[in-house]
Each structure stands twice: as C-alpha cells, then as structure tokens.
C-alpha cells in the first residue's frame, strides 16, 4: 500500500523508487494507493505510478471533482472565490487572485488524475481505520493502524509548523468554516491511542497529543490577536489581514485571507464577534 504520492517530478519519482528498492520492493509491489487529500504535493505521482502498475486508487469522495479537475466544479470554485473576496472587502487584490485562478484552471489541466478513483469507506481495510479529518481541506482523511499505534495524518498535524485550514467551498458552492473544522479534527485525534504520527511533511511526531494541544492553544492565541484588531476598529477580513500581516498580504494573499477568515469564523462560532453585511461587504464587531 502507498499512502500519498508526492509531487509529479523526477526527484519525487526517484525518491519513491529508491525507498522501495532499499526495502527490497519495487513499484510493482504496490497493491493500492490511498490519498489523504487532493493537493498536488500528495497526489502528483498518481498517474505515473498507475501507468507503471495499474493499482486501484482510493480517496474521499469529496476529492473526486478536485482530482479529476471537473470543469463545472472548477468554474463553481472560481465564482465562489470571486464572491468571497468581494464580501471580505478585498478589492483589487481579490480581483487579481480570481484572475490567477482563471489562468490556473487552464494551465493546470495536465494535473488531473486519469485513472478511476475508488471511494474510501469505513471498515474497508483490515486493521486500518479511515478517519475523516477535514479542515486543511474538506476531503482530508487520516489512517490509523491500531496494532502499531501509528497515525498517517496527511497535513492535519505537522511537526515544525501549524497546518493551514484553507477556505474552500463545499460541493454546493457554500463556504466551509475550515478552521473550526480543523480544530474539531484535532480534538477528535486527541482520543486516538497513537504513539507515532507519520505526517505529510517533516519528521515523525512522537508526542502527538502534546503537539495537538499546542496547536489548539496557538489557534486560540491568534484568534485573540484578531479580536483585538476588531475591537480597535478594523472591520473587514481584508482590514484585519492587512493590519496583521502587512507586506505578506500582497505576497501570499490567498493563504493570508484563509488564515484571517478562518480565525474570524472561529471567533464568531464562539460568540466573540458577529458579522453583518453592509453594502455587500461583511463587517465584524465584537460582542
């Protein structure tokens, strides 16, 4: 079994083959693939592996339109972000990002998964538990191996950085509250009797429960900082983003806006702030 498939480049392909060879395996020994989520750094080599060895590829059903780059879904997603950035008061920065998304829809067509995808279901694999852990993406899953007490976490938990809960639409074009979902997924994993986490990035995590508590506390601290900005009169998500992230706002616009919107959602769900539309723009006030 291969969990995730790296980027589609020769370095990743060679690293996969070298690692298999060092353990006395080859590509033809892979029996199936499971994807933790649809991002290209986790699914990039799928087509290449399947071309060499036509194994089944399993993923969460919400991954399918993303991995297949379904044209209707891609267009819906572009329209979603166009509306979102208008509502968040992003102005020209939002319009530039939407134009980038339109270009990327054409430029990244070659990234689509060509093979048939199979839906992950509970109890599908003996001694391997599939756990839904949305937040970083809507389709993210983790895999728990009880006899080893190992968790393959995708990008839910990373040793050296906090995972980003990226704003995304659901299948109906409605905004998912990604950061609250991410926190719920972290809390869900606190009850898993795991000793080691194999993360999608970085080193093995040997203190997973402690790190989860640290990540949740970090989200709480950042939310409080954003609350103080709201109390100081920064009204829109764009206002908060520019005040807190300054130059990074322009350089990493979509990532910054996901962080800010996520933390404002987190505060709103806890009754700390409320948002009201004024002339089509969502303005926040502390409660």
From TrEMBL:
<dbReference type="Pfam" id="PF00753">
    <property type="entry name" value="Lactamase_B"/>
</dbReference>
<dbReference type="GO" id="GO:0016787">
    <property type="term" value="F:hydrolase activity"/>
</dbReference>
<protein>
    <submittedName>
        <fullName>MBL fold metallo-hydrolase</fullName>
    </submittedName>
</protein>
<dbReference type="InterPro" id="IPR001279">
    <property type="entry name" value="Metallo-B-lactamas"/>
</dbReference>
<feature type="domain" description="Metallo-beta-lactamase">
    <location>
        <begin position="1"/>
        <end position="201"/>
    </location>
</feature>
<dbReference type="InterPro" id="IPR050662">
    <property type="entry name" value="Sec-metab_biosynth-thioest"/>
</dbReference>
<dbReference type="InterPro" id="IPR036866">
    <property type="entry name" value="RibonucZ/Hydroxyglut_hydro"/>
</dbReference>
């Amino acid at each position: 079994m291969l969990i995730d498939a790296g980027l589609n480049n020769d370095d990743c392909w060679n690293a996969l083959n070298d690692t298999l060879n060092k353990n006395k395996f080859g590509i033809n020994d892979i029996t199936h693939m499971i994807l933790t989520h649809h991002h290209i750094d986790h699914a990039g080599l799928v087509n290449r592996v399947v071309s060499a060895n036509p194994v089944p590829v399993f993923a969460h059903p919400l991954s399918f339109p993303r991995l297949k780059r379904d044209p209707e879904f891609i267009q819906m997603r572009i329209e979603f972000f166009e509306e979102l950035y208008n509502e968040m008061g992003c102005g020209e920065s939002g319009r530039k990002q939407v134009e980038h998304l339109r270009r990327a829809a054409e430029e990244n067509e070659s990234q689509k998964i060509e093979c048939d995808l199979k839906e992950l279901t509970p109890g599908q694999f003996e001694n391997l538990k599939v756990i839904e852990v949305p937040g970083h993406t809507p389709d993210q899953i983790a895999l728990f191996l009880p006899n080893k007490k190992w968790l393959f976490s995708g990008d839910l938990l990373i040793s050296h950085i906090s995972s980003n809960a990226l704003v995304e639409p659901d299948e109906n074009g409605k905004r998912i509250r990604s950061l609250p979902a991410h926190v719920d997924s972290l809390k869900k994993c606190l009850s898993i009797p795991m000793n080691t986490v194999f993360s999608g990035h970085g080193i093995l995590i040997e203190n997973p429960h402690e790190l989860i508590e640290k990540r949740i506390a970090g989200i709480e601290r950042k939310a409080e900082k954003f609350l103080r900005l709201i109390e100081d009169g920064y009204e829109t998500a764009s206002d908060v983003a520019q005040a807190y992230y300054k130059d990074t706002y322009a350089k990493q616009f979509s990532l910054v806006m996901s962080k800010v919107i996520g933390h404002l959602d987190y505060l709103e769900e806890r009754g700390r702030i409320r948002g009201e539309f004024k002339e089509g723009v969502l303005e926040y006030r502390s409660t």
